[in-house]
Amino acid sequence: LIIEKAAGVSEEVVWTDFLFHYALHGWGLGADATLTIRGLTLATGHLNEFAIFAAYASVYVHDMIISGYSGRPGETQGGAVAIFNADYCDDSPAPSAATPTMSNVSVVGNCRGVRIQDSHCAYIKDCTATDNTDNSFYFAAQDYTYATGCNGGTFDSCVATGSGQAGFMVIGGTDTTIKNSVVNGSRGAGVM
Hints:
The protein is mostly beta strands. It is 0% helix and 43% strand. It is built from no helices and 18 strands. The chain has strands spanning 2-4, 14-16, 20-21, 33-38, 41-43, 50-55, 57-67, 79-84, 102-108, 112-117, 123-125, 128-130, 137-140, 154-156, 159-163, 168-170, 177-179, 182-186. Strands 1, 2, 4, 5, 7, 9, 11, 12, 14, 15, 17 and 18 form a twelve-stranded parallel beta sheet that branches. Strands 3-6-8-10-13-16 form a six-stranded parallel beta sheet, with no helix packed on it. It is globular, with a radius of gyration of 15 Å.
């Protein structure tokens, strides 16, 4: 599935109240599908959900702004992006600074920013997270142990500003890299 701004459109395209949830869109666990979203602004003023919530699918997000998802007082159910159990290791070309899985994405005023969980070889480049109420960038493990989590993941040249918790949170996993990245103020640890 590809969702993108039409070629030749120069003005900003805003999709209000956009939701992609794998279970609601017929992508059961193990669907082995691909989702690409490019060139849009996704915004809400009232949804307590993730804008993009995908499991067992390769998700590519580029040149986006995502704002307002679960970012109001008392809202803790969602955020901008949650990708669970994605495996990019066999992509051709392999994910890298030249071919990231996510790039030039700005997440602003959400609960969670970018949460990659139990996934392999994700490469997030040139992304910003500003004024999110929880963690800005995660590599997470569902069971919160060192034996699971993300493997071979990279945050490259990302900036977390005004994080409600950690700027960058790494739970479990192996071979995780955070490079050329900056934390500008966080309520919790800058990198944890």
